[in-house]
From TrEMBL:
Keywords: Aminopeptidase, Hydrolase, Protease. Residues 106-149 form the Peptidase M1 membrane alanine aminopeptidase domain. Residues 147-222 are annotated as: Disordered. This is Aminopeptidase N. It is a lipid-anchor; GPI-anchor. Residues 1-72 form the Aminopeptidase N-like N-terminal domain.
Length: 222
């Protein structure tokens, strides 16, 4: 069972009263009711759960969000399972249908690497206490940048790296055409972790990202 939101561009007004305009930002305090065997997700972590109807229902009350636009608010109610790991101080989780959980490990590993790398590169800590990636079996938008709860289609979010052929070394899961060269100034075509390549972990000044490295100057600077 699954219910998920996609409010971009102007559908938040269909879920709750609001001034549904990206420039008019606000803090949101979300409460979601669910059956006892279900789980809910939203942008922030759950602050408390209130039982209802002799425990057959639960109401999950979430911490108030940071200030943001209405279209970034997100809800999920599902019977999904999850895997979790820490990305620095951030609790990072991948949620998927039970039958797809055997494909979630790779997405979790790459997602944690993405988040920790960009925190180091930009020297800006991730502003939320958690980040959920949700693999939805049918998501027409393709992907969405909701803070703290990022939905995407099942295919890119749940993926197992291909096993190497006999006699051949392991290869990057990316197609060579999607892996920019060290001198490329182009940014990746997609911000999903599966479409990003990164230098080794460590000091980003020693391993600059190929996506942000300027080309060497040509000719006389004067």
């Amino acid at each position: 069972m699954l219910a998920a939101t996609q409010f971009q561009p102007t559908d938040a007004r269909r879920a709750f009263p609001c001034l549904d305009e990206p420039a008019l930002k606000a803090n949101f305090t979300v409460s979601l009711a669910r059956e006892e065997h279900m789980a809910t997700l939203s942008n922030m972590e759950i602050e408390a759960t209130e039982p209802r109807r002799s425990g057959r229902l639960g109401v999950d009350h979430y911490h108030t969000t940071v200030k943001m636009s209405t279209y970034l608010v997100a809800f999920v109610v599902s019977d999904f399972e999850f895997l979790s790991d820490l990305a620095g101080e951030t609790n990072f989780s991948v949620w998927a249908r039970p039958e797809a959980m055997d494909q979630a490990d790779y997405s979790l590993s790459v997602g944690v690497d993405c988040l920790t790398y960009f925190e180091s590169y930009f020297n800006i800590p991730y502003p939320l206490p958690k980040q959920d990636m949700v693999a939805l079996p049918d998501f027409a938008a393709g992907a969405m940048e909701n803070w703290g709860e990022t939905p995407s289609p099942l295919t890119p979010s749940s993926f197992s790296p291909p096993s190497p052929l006999p006699g051949r070394p392991p290869t990057n899961a990316l197609s060579p055409s999607l892996s920019p060269s060290p001198t490329s100034r182009e940014t990746p075509c997609c911000t999903s972790p599966l479409f990003l390549s990164f230098p080794p972990r460590g000091d980003p000044t020693k391993h600059p990202s190929p996506h942000f490295s300027p080309s060497p100057p040509s000719g006389d600077a004067n």
